[in-house]
Amino acid sequence: MMRILIALILREIATTYGKSAGGYVWALLEPVLGILLLTIVFSMMLAQPALGTNFPLFYATGLLPFTMYNDLQSKVAGSIRYSRPFLAYPSVTYLDAMLARVILNALTHAVVFTIVVVGIFVIYQLPVVVHVGEVAEGMIMIVALSIGVGTLNCYLMTAFPVWERTWGILNRPLFLASGIFFLYDVMPAEAQRLLWYNPVLHCVSQLRKGIYPMYDASFISAEYVFGVSFVLTAMGLLLLVRNHRNLLER
Questions:
Q1: Whether the predicted model's global pTM rises above the 0.85 cut
Q2: Could you give the angle at the alpha carbon of 56 between the alpha carbons of 101 and 175, nearest 5°?
């Protein structure tokens, strides 16, 4: 199994990031440009961000975890279609394909997050008071949720191709509803009651809690996120176990 995973990971590296270092440079440069754009736009409208005093750090701790969730769930959802030629071999399963994509992309996003955040601390000479355990918990929540959403979508998108476009439309509002630009704590009570059920908001806020020790974020429920993740993963795996042979023939 380890040899299969390594082979699939190497294939993923070659196809996603290219055979040179340029692909990984873009993986780092793309979020940096996004953070820079948000910083320029919002710093012209606001005196200071919703948390702390540094605009790049605030938007990095919102945009990067959301990007991690969005990319991971998309990669897991496309596992069967992406690795269909290899799944014809009995020794390679759809679980191998999914696990390989999770490992590589989760590590890539974790490294990008670390480089960007550390770079902001160094460039702006910010006092470093980071709770690594809280940040790690936020990362684990993101990975778990991405696996759950991606596993269920892996079946739905392969069985019903129209679902991919439908999901793209349904998933788009999360960019505005996941606490990237505004904190949950300052939103109106009616909005809070609705947005609390967005698990991505809990993940983003948990990660921010580790970067900003003064941020309480008492509304966060890791149990809720892991519960949703478990249910979605179980549903997705059940559907894949029962139908994966039919899916490979499509």
A1: yes
A2: 50
